[in-house]
Amino acid sequence: MAQNLPIMAKATAVWLCDNTTITFKQVADFCGLHELEVQGIADGDVATGVKGFDPIANKQLTQEEIDKAEADPSHKLKLLYNPASAGEEKRRGPRYTPLSKRQDRPASIYWLVKFHPELSDGQISKLVGTTKPTIQAIRERTHWNINNIEPIDPVALGLCKQSELDAAVQKANAKKAKEGGVMSDDERRKLVSTEQSLGMDAEPKIPAGMAGLETFTLSDAPEPEEDTSVPDADTFFNLPDDDGDDED
């Protein structure tokens, strides 16, 4: 039988690291985490922005149980029975997003919906850690703050990696092609990785003022030779011929 885990296991681990002297292994065993992950929490490299969840105030541990664990590193913490914690280890939710970045999620959802309409709600949910109702509200422009949301790349916001976004887009386009959908030129370009697209040479474009001259090539044509001859004075001043007689 699987061990029941405390509610908000990672937040509980943050509290235990901040408020007790029990070992990383004891915290890891109690919260269902890896010992190195608990060490990362203690060092501030993992769960940045996660607020600690007090297991004593929330009836998951007693102070006596913590005292025993602090006195004996081999003691395993025992979770108080809490019906709400049953099956916690089986719970699978969207990716955790730090509190400091949660306000950026609507902007990233709007960006994905606008520039990658081929992505499903499930893919967007996994990329930025949101819920399908929120995505649907932004798709349908019924979100309460839709008029103030500006689309921002989730990669720039740090909500997902570029490789994760590229993989999701390729998977969505491959599924569409398999179902018989025809990809547009823009969708085909999305299949190219970011590194490849940044390394491509820019295609020559015809200036806007030359519209209608598409049949002409942009190759270097020889320029006409400049006439360097100097006109004589009569030609320059265009003086009339003096055909009359001189007066006496």
TrEMBL record:
Highest taxon listed in the record's lineage: Bacteria
Pfam family, one: TrcR
Residue ranges of the region described as Disordered: 211-248
Protein name: Cytoplasmic protein
